[in-house]
Inverse folding.
């Protein structure tokens, strides 16, 4: 079966520092894949390769078998949606934000997408300053869903949220995955990866040290690469 | 008065520089060397310019020399812009393009439509005013675009991740930068005559020209400058934006400019 994303010999350096060293790994189709690793392991960079916010210096990244080097990045980014670490709301109301993703989206479509992130339609008239961190991040998720992505990339989306908001966002991601939107979720939090992961890709200092299902017997050993007592 | 300043008069005007020096000394500003250097440098540059203008204005001189002089000013101005904002990538080429476009558009209009006669005595000073006044707007535009995109990197990348092109993603921030760059010139244009009398008009009146005639000349010059600043600010903002993104719509690593 073709992998969702396939990294082959990927190397990427920024300002002279090598972030990813010859990474070869595959993310399977379907389910929620957690990309885990310590701070600076290259997790976010690997994720950003999937929608071409980064491109490798060497090696190949394939999306469902197609080399991303030959894919139009604008089309790709609408197929592969991304939610960032910190909610980045644009000026204006929530409705304005959703219209950035699709200026022609109808009011019904906007209300429907808000329902998918468990927010009331009344939120459409609110501005960013009036939202809590968790609400803002859910609006960012809704904004991404407006483009109808086939895949979701979540780059440590709960790192600045309180525990209640973390659980809500995790539940939303699980629901979206169950409804056929495979998700890649970056975290360094072992407890979170245990709650979420169907599959894992563990990075250590820019190298892939484990790929496999969450029930793989080798996983506990792989998690020692994350450091800390939880591992 | 016919604008004749005697060497003694010029020397007397240095008293005012002496006042500035005393202020610097009294307040321990440590600007004395810079004040003296600026005074000497301005004098030497102006004297040199005076001789060049006198040479260019000789009736038998071909207008081609005046245009060559203007081209030299454009190149030097572009280099100055680059030096004042070295953090902005490719700024020399962008500023050169912007100033050339602005010079072509504004000088082409005022000389092509006969607003001023296409003579050396008009070409060189007017080009100088156009280029000189465009400098700060050009630098401001380049810096603001770079800083806006660096500060709002999260928002810009969120827009790119939604499938917007780099031009679309940058538009709100570039627009804001352009407004910032143009506002001082617009304010200055609004205040002219009420708050300050500009140099060209003052010079004409000192030279004995009827104030109403001087006003007409000044108004045309103000519009020339406004057009030039608008052109350079917009061209530079768009050019710098293009340099800050890759062709495949990724925002390059940026650092804020030093102000």
């Amino acid at each position: 079966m073709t992998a969702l994303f396939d990294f082959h010999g990927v190397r990427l350096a920024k300002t002279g520092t090598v972030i990813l060293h010859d990474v070869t790994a595959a993310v399977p189709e379907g389910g929620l894949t957690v990309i885990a690793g310590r701070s600076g392991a290259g997790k976010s960079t690997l994720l950003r390769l999937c929608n071409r916010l980064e491109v490798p210096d060497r090696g190949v990244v394939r999306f469902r078998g197609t080399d991303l080097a030959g894919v139009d990045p604008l089309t790709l980014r609408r197929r592969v949606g991304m939610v960032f670490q910190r909610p980045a709301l644009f000026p204006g109301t929530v409705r304005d934000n959703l219209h950035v993703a699709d200026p022609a989206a109808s009011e019904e479509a906007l209300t429907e997408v808000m329902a998918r992130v468990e927010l009331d339609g009344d939120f459409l008239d609110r501005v960013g300053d009036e939202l809590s961190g968790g609400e803002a991040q859910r609006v960012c998720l809704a904004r991404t869903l407006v483009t109808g992505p086939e895949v979701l990339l979540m780059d440590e989306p709960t790192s600045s949220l309180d525990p209640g908001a973390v659980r809500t966002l995790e539940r939303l991601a699980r629901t979206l995955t169950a409804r056929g939107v495979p998700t890649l979720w970056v975290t360094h939090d072992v407890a979170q990866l245990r709650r979420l992961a169907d599959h894992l890709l563990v990075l250590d200092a820019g190298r892939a040290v484990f790929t496999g299902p969450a029930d793989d017997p080798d996983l506990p050993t792989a998690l020692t690469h994350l450091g800390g007592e939880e591992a | 008065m016919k604008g004749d300043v005697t060497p003694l008069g010029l020397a007397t005007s240095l008293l005012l520089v002496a006042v500035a020096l005393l202020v610097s000394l009294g307040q321990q500003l440590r600007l004395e060397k810079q004040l003296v250097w600026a005074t000497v440098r301005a004098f030497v540059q102006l004297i040199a310019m005076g001789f060049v203008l006198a040479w260019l204005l000789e009736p038998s001189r071909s207008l081609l020399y005046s245009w060559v002089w203007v081209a030299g000013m454009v190149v030097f101005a572009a280099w100055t812009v680059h030096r004042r904002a070295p953090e902005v990538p490719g700024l020399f080429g962008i500023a050169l393009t912007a100033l050339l476009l602005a010079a072509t558009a504004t000088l082409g209009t005022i000389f092509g439509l006969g607003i001023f006669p296409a003579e050396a005595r008009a070409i060189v000073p007017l080009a100088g005013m156009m280029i000189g006044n465009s400098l700060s707007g050009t630098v401001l535009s380049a810096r603001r675009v770079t800083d806006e995109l660096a500060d709002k990197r999260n928002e810009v990348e969120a827009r790119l991740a939604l499938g917007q092109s780099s031009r679309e993603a940058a538009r709100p921030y570039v627009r804001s930068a352009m407004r910032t760059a143009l506002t001082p010139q617009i304010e200055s244009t609004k205040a002219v005559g009420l708050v300050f009398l500009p140099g060209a008009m003052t010079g004409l009146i000192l030279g004995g020209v009827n104030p109403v005639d001087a006003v007409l000349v000044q108004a045309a010059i103000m519009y020339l400058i406004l057009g030039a600043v608008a052109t350079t600010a917009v061209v530079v903002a768009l050019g710098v934006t293009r340099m800050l993104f890759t062709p495949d719509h990724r925002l390059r690593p940026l650092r804020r400019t030093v102000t």
In short: Chain A touches chain B through 25 residues (CB under 8 Å). The domain at 5-226 of chain A is CATH 3.40.50.300 (Rossmann fold).
